[in-house]
Amino acid sequence: MTSPGGPWAPHLLGLVAAGGAAGSVLRYAVGIWCAQRFGAELPWGTLAVNVAGSATIGLLGGLMIGGMSITNETRLLLITGVLGGFTTFSAFSLDVGLLAQRSAPTAFLYLMATLVLGLGAFALCFWLGRQV
């Protein structure tokens, strides 16, 4: 079912924004908690949100593929909003998982392209930023 106003309808944008704000605050809180609990030598908070977000989106994705009905509004609030604000790694995990359902080689290429291009872009721009 298409929402009145299409994908840019104000209420849909509001759901994504509210979920994103909640996910970002949650990510911040997990980061602080992990640093206080385990120290700041390693980015434990980032690891925690990536694993927790991937687990959560895996469960939701599996339930949806298994036939669980979820409204577009709920998907936008929870998956795009909360999990998107919490960690984009969860969206990446879902993309790879869904691609693997259709084609393992395509999923592998997407995974490798994301890692190589993402880390490569980071390295290049990190280097450029240090040159300024």
UniProtKB/TrEMBL annotation:
<keyword id="KW-0407">Ion channel</keyword>
<feature type="transmembrane region" description="Helical">
    <location>
        <begin position="47"/>
        <end position="70"/>
    </location>
</feature>
<dbReference type="GO" id="GO:0005886">
    <property type="term" value="C:plasma membrane"/>
</dbReference>
<keyword id="KW-0915">Sodium</keyword>
<feature type="transmembrane region" description="Helical">
    <location>
        <begin position="107"/>
        <end position="129"/>
    </location>
</feature>
<keyword id="KW-1003">Cell membrane</keyword>
<keyword id="KW-0813">Transport</keyword>
<comment type="similarity">
    <text>Belongs to the fluoride channel Fluc/FEX (TC 1.A.43) family.</text>
</comment>
<keyword id="KW-1133">Transmembrane helix</keyword>
<feature type="binding site">
    <location>
        <position position="87"/>
    </location>
    <ligand>
        <name>Na(+)</name>
    </ligand>
</feature>
<dbReference type="GO" id="GO:0062054">
    <property type="term" value="F:fluoride channel activity"/>
</dbReference>
<feature type="binding site">
    <location>
        <position position="84"/>
    </location>
    <ligand>
        <name>Na(+)</name>
    </ligand>
</feature>
<dbReference type="GO" id="GO:0140114">
    <property type="term" value="P:cellular detoxification of fluoride"/>
</dbReference>
<dbReference type="InterPro" id="IPR003691">
    <property type="entry name" value="FluC"/>
</dbReference>
<feature type="transmembrane region" description="Helical">
    <location>
        <begin position="76"/>
        <end position="100"/>
    </location>
</feature>
<keyword id="KW-0812">Transmembrane</keyword>
<keyword id="KW-0406">Ion transport</keyword>
<keyword id="KW-0997">Cell inner membrane</keyword>
<dbReference type="GO" id="GO:0046872">
    <property type="term" value="F:metal ion binding"/>
</dbReference>
<keyword id="KW-0479">Metal-binding</keyword>
<comment type="function">
    <text>Fluoride-specific ion channel. Important for reducing fluoride concentration in the cell, thus reducing its toxicity.</text>
</comment>
<feature type="transmembrane region" description="Helical">
    <location>
        <begin position="12"/>
        <end position="35"/>
    </location>
</feature>
<protein>
    <recommendedName>
        <fullName>Fluoride-specific ion channel FluC</fullName>
    </recommendedName>
</protein>
<dbReference type="Pfam" id="PF02537">
    <property type="entry name" value="CRCB"/>
</dbReference>
<keyword id="KW-0472">Membrane</keyword>
